[in-house]
Amino acid sequence: SKVRVLESGFVGRRRYVQQGVGVLRGKAGKYGLLVRGPAGIGKSCLVGKLVERVKDKELVVFHGVVSEADVTVKLRAMLKRLGNDEGFAMLKSDKPYGQKIEFLFREAFKNNISTIIYFDDFEQNLIRSGNEYNVKPETIEVIRPFLEAVDWAEGSSNVVISSRYPFILEVDGEDLSRTKLVDITLRSFDGADLDKKASNLKFVAKSSHVEMYLRYGGGNPRLLEWLDVIARDEARYDLKALEAELQRRHGEFIHEFLADVIAETAGEEFHGFIRRAAVYGEPVDATAFAGFGGAHFLDTGVDLTLVEREVRAALAIKDFGRGEFVYWVTPVIRDAMWGNLTLGEQLEMHELAYKWYSEWVKTSSEPNYKYLEEAVRHALAVGDIRGACPYARDLGWYFDELVLYRQGWAIMEKVAVRVTDEVIGEAKAAKDVEVGSLLHAYAQSLWKLGDARQAIAFYEKSLAILQEVYGTRHPYIKRLCNNMAIVYDETGDPQKAADYRVKAKAAWS
After folding, report:
1. Which residue among 10, 16, 195, 446 sits deepest, i.e. has the most Cβ atoms within 10 Å of its Cβ?
2. Distance CA 16, CA 2 (A)
């Protein structure tokens, strides 16, 4: 879930906790909550503490970039687990997405399942315009139904968003972020709360440089914890140079700087490892890091708080024996670490990541569409178009099963438009059924979405490859030719349609 309730070390925030619990218990007049503040201030930790106070509610977490697919997959999984057949059937239906979410708040989330829908790290869905942040157009339609319908559950269920920045989500002249959400703006620790936090920093408290650490920690929990890491072994650091750098840096740049200093001081090999490990956009197990000699650095990364660690689902441990934990570079620094690699190093890491995700998908018995998306992303990054084809096709089928036709089309399009004549020639020579199969699935997606003429072009490309693989007499060729006949009928070309019906008949005779 990536939402952790601290067993110890949660300091202060009493007023915020009281205010947040009031919202989640339906006592604030609004049933949505926005927790905002700079990186490392403890937004997710506060939400974790709030969730702990309302354990009777189910928690569904969406991290980072929000998509209709992610929402559908996770809500379906919860409703199936809890045996809510009516809600599950609604999400499987072909009704518009917004109607599905509205139904859940009107029925399931009001009468049967008290739920907290949590959008974490929501700043990834924002775009800056001057001094304001607006929700990206593609995200508005995903998040809007939640905010419009949250009142209908009458406090039984809630929507919680955490974000570094306040944002505007205007629909029909109404800013839903203001009218539907109670705003909790987290501030840096000060006064008694800062004293209490400082007392928990075991090494800072003992250091003769305690005033410097507290000054540049600025009351930010994440920075203070990183400075405690430095204080633990401060003889290895040039504290004068460190202070000089901290004096001229501000805000999030301090996070990036301190993380880099800690990683570099841990050794050149570890520094290189943490940068390369940033290639993974999803939590992965220890085997993912072995390809660049880094699996033994994971404990160091966790100890230095540069790497996050989470217990893997019990089913995954049983099925694959890949270890108890999954890991990822903490999002606060991931982009900065990745950006410090050369282009050649990035390409090398994309190749390794593609191979790892590819192997995982082939050997797993449980679908993981996020891993399929990652396999496509890394394959495209290194220009392996044929390698991306089977995963893009599988995603297309997966989204079709969820009645998310446009999402399936979008992921297949990323690959299909890069299947050039040269790639088709390679696929024909290698009898690569995966390329032909993707083009067939993409053509079907175009047809379903109403673009019959464009569908014909990709059906033709698919047929050229698959005839090389199967010959002209095969059930697959019959099905493909029948599909093409139907599409030609739709485009007003009965002669072409008749030709392909003849080919379909010949393929089966």
Report:
1. 446
2. 21
